Amino acid sequence: MSQLKDADYFLDISQEVCPFTFVRTKLLLERMEPGKILEVRLQGHEPRENVPRSALELGHDVLGMYVEDEATPEGCYRLRIRKR
């Protein structure tokens, strides 16, 4: 990931459960300026499915998701979103 632009914002929702995972993400996205990048740390199947889908539905760009920690059963992931 070193070739990617550093994120402008970071949010750790790895200990949250749905629907709070996207609620917290959405609230931060609303405060951000267009073009800024948010990196979200998340864990679990539901957040991995729901957070990127919801961001896309709101018109933001999902830049990608990668595994942070393969050692945990649910795994921690990093999701990058560009605010539109």
In round numbers, the mean pLDDT is: 90
**Rg computed from alpha carbons, rounded to a whole number of angstroms:** 12 Å
Question: Could you describe the largest sheet, including whether it forms a barrel?
Answer: 4 strands, mixed
Determine the strand fraction and express it as a percent band.
Answer: 25-35%
Task: Please provide the count of β strands.
Answer: 4
Number of helices: 2
User: What's the shape?
Assistant: globular
Please summarize what this structure is:
The chain has 84 residues and is of the alpha+beta class. It has helices at 20-31, 45-57; strands spanning 9-12, 37-43, 61-69, 76-82.
List the helices and strands and how they pair.
Blueprint: E1 9-12, H1 20-31, E2 37-43, H2 45-57, E3 61-69, E4 76-82
Parallel strand pairs: 1-2
Antiparallel strand pairs: 2-4, 3-4
Helix pairs in contact: 1-2
Structure notes:
The protein is α+β, with helices and mostly antiparallel strands. Helix content is about 30%, strand content about 30%. The protein contains 2 helices and 4 strands, in the order βαβαββ. A 4-stranded mixed β-sheet has the order 1-2-4-3, covered by helices on one side. About 25% of the residues are buried. The mean pLDDT is about 90.
List keywords for this structure.
84 residues, alpha+beta, 4-stranded mixed beta sheet, 2 helices, 4 strands
